[in-house]
Amino acid sequence: MIGRHHRFVLWIDSVAGVLVCPQDEVWVGQAVAASGVQLPFQANLRRRHLKLLRDNGRYWAQLFANRDGKIVAGENNEAILPTGVSGQLVGPGQEISLGEGLGLRLRIPSPLTSTAVLDYLGPLKSVPRTDFAVLMAQACLLGNTSQHHIVIPELDQATLYFNGPSLAIRCSEKLIINGCSVESGVTLQHGDRVESTAFALSIEVLDSLE
Questions:
Q1: What percent of the chain has pLDDT over 90?
Q2: Which of 31, 161, 174, 200 could form a disulfide with 13 if both were Cys (CB 3.0 to 4.6 A apart)?
Q3: Could you tell me the domains of the chain?
Q4: Are 194 and 186 in contact (CB under 8 A)?
Q5: Helices H, strands E: what count in the chain?
Q6: What are the residues whose beta carbons fall under 8 Å from the beta carbon of 37, sequence distance 6 or more?
Q7: Beta-carbon neighbour count of residue 110 at 10 Å?
Q8: How far apart are CA 36 and CA 32, in angstroms?
Q9: Positive or negative: CA dihedral 80, 23, 20, 45
Q10: What does the alpha-carbon distance between residue 109 and residue 139 come to, in Å, rounded to a whole number?
């Protein structure tokens, strides 16, 4: 079973590697042992450089960098985090500078869910090496428009979502998992190979954060 306490990677053939974090609180930092971050990078960052918090569909950032880390592309976003910690509200399209030309851009492609996409800016190399990250809330949408979190040109739409405690997938197309035809809404497991006529992906669970 894949739950909200897991991080996992979607390895999508000929499209991208996507790191998915379903947790409401996500740490960004250096890829070193015992750093305890959900988004680790091989970069000149602190072990715990930045905390992102999702609350009521909005995203808040608390930076722990003492160089030039800051929120850019927006003004008047000083606020108080719901937990009472001083932080900044990060809106769609805003960039978070991590210093030295490194950063993250937050996007919320679909109005149907507060799931966000984090684009890597500058020479950021995630561990494992992925193309971008998804901060998954209610659902992660895969399809062929800009309103999908993961764009797959040949796919109309597939949806990853949590059915109770377990990650599941539904799709308008016939799905084959590990070589067997399955019904839409099937629960997913570590190592599953999911295929249709429009896409193919493998799921790798990285760790449990319980």
A1: 76
A2: 200
A3: 1-20+136-210 (2.60.200.20), 23-130 (2.60.200)
A4: no
A5: 0, 22
A6: 27, 28, 29, 30, 47, 48, 49
A7: 19
A8: 9
A9: positive
A10: 12
Residue 79 makes CB contacts below 8 A (sequence gap 6+) with 60, 87, 88, 89
- The answer, yes or no, to whether residue 89 has pLDDT greater than 50, is yes
User: What is the reported pLDDT for 34?
Assistant: 72
Backbone angles phi, psi at 21, to 5 degrees: -120, 110
- Decide if pLDDT at 81 tops 80: no
Question: Using CA atoms, how far apart are residues 159 and 139, in angstroms rounded to an integer?
Answer: 7
Residues whose CB falls within 8 Å of the CB of residue 206, separated by 6 or more in sequence, listed in order: 6, 7, 8, 9, 128
Q: Which long-range contacts (CB under 8 A, 24 or more apart) does 31-35 make?
A: 31/126, 31/127
Q: Is the pLDDT of residue 67 over 60?
A: no
Q: How far is CA 182 from CA 11, 165, 193, 201, in A?
A: 20, 20, 12, 15
Q: Whose structure tokens read 């193309």?
A: 131
Could you tell me how many residues make up the chain? 210
pLDDT of residue 86: 55
